[in-house]
Amino acid sequence: MMRRLLVFLILLLVTPAHAQPRGPTVLAAASLQEVLTDASVVWARQGHPRPVLSFAASSALARQVRAGAPADLFISADEEWMDDLARADLLAPGTRAVLAGNRLVVITPRANRVRLTIPTLARTLAAGPLAMADPAAVPAGRYGRAALERLGAWDAVRGRVVRAENVRAALALVERGVAPYGIVYATDARASAGVRVAGVFPASSHPPIRYPVSRLRNSRHPDAEGFRRFLLSPRGQAIFARHGFTRP
User: Fold this and answer.
1) Taking CA 91 as the corner, what is the angle to CA 145 and CA 74, rounded to the nearest 5 degrees?
2) CATH classification of 17-101+210-242 is 3.10.20.70, yes or no?
3) pTM, whole model, 2 decimals?
4) Bridge pairing between strands 73-75 and 25-29
């Protein structure tokens, strides 16, 4: 009996008290930080291990998946990077779905009271600098370039663009006063106390902003599919709505 007690005490000493089961690893677009953090908290309160969240530009995350990074779910800010992984046969069949939508806006530091309209947008942004996620690869930047091209403003603006690695980095440039204007999602502007929306791009000026989610083919975590379905469920969608995302 004493020997069993001694073994038990040794196990208590060598096992970290803080050790917790790890939830599924989620690679998600940078603009999803607040909403997915809230969703993961709600999920954990239901008795599940809290998901491990990793945020970056969708382009960077897709490249990580292609390089073999271990992960369970991928959530992109556009369909193109999800298509890229689908072509590489890296998605679990039947698990791709559109999770949410968004709007594209021009932001400025909160103290700047300028209101941009379509007629004044090109002239104002051409004065630069203009903070944008990289328009060559990052979804927010590609949406922004498409909108400026549609409005006939890209040629005037392109030489003034400060390219950021993701949409949150573009937001930070405006927050810090490095750029007087930036193009981000409406939910990014809502998440920052340091900026305000100076103008909103018409939805018709760029491709629809969609956030597809999919389980990855190599995922083995038992909670991965459950968390994916939770995000798509009415309860999960209500969390997205509270953060200003539009319905898919």
Assistant:
1) 55
2) no
3) 0.89
4) parallel
Place domain 104-205 in its CATH homologous superfamily.
Periplasmic binding protein-like II (3.40.190.10)
Tokens of 44: 């954990």
Domain boundaries, the chain: 17-101+210-242, 104-205
β-strand partners of 188: none
For residue 227, give both structure tokens: 């968390």
| Tens digit of pLDDT at every position of the chain (248 positions) | 444 433 333 334 433 445 568 899 999 999 999 999 999 999 999 999 999 999 999 999 999 999 999 999 999 999 999 999 999 999 999 999 999 999 999 999 999 988 988 888 888 888 889 999 999 999 999 999 999 999 999 999 999 999 999 999 999 999 999 999 999 999 999 999 999 999 999 999 999 999 999 999 999 999 999 999 999 999 999 999 999 999 98
Computed on alpha carbons and rounded to an integer, the radius of gyration of the chain in Å comes to: 21
Q: CA-CA distances (angstroms) from residue 51 to 54, 75, 102, 199, 228?
A: 10, 13, 23, 35, 11
> What six digits make up the tokens of 189?
């502007």
